[in-house]
Amino acid sequence: MLLIKYINIVYIQIYGDMMACCGIWEKFDNENNTIKEYKYWKLLIRKNQAFLGACVAITKEHHDFLSELSEKEMAEYNEVVKDAEKALKKLWNFDGIHHLLLMMKDKHTHFHILPRYIETKEFAGLKWEDGYNKPPLGINNSPNQDVLNKIRDEIKKAIED
Question: What residues make up the domain containing 156?
């Protein structure tokens, strides 16, 4: 564990605050899908838009467990949640929202933020069917990057308002 922390510190000094230790930034396409960067977190649009506006909040520092987060990181997550929920409510008026910390495949603290809709939504020429009473897992809807960019940009604007 000490060696991993040392490698991460060296990586930060060379490349900045994005951690290369686990591939999470590549998986969620940090370069194209970032909505907003905070001091301790990044909010990204998810490539798998199982639900319109689905996001992921990722800690900038690698942590294997939620219990490793500092009080400052946890406090700032509250700001991330408020921004995301405000923007998603304003844009698409979600009926419910899930915040999931699963970390089964990606061993880096991150929350999936999944807005849920009773009625079908339309955006970017696509229909978004939710199945509101069904569990939020196992649904795959990966639109092309142009659609993801439109969703990302709308959420960015709504956060800035």
Answer: 24-160
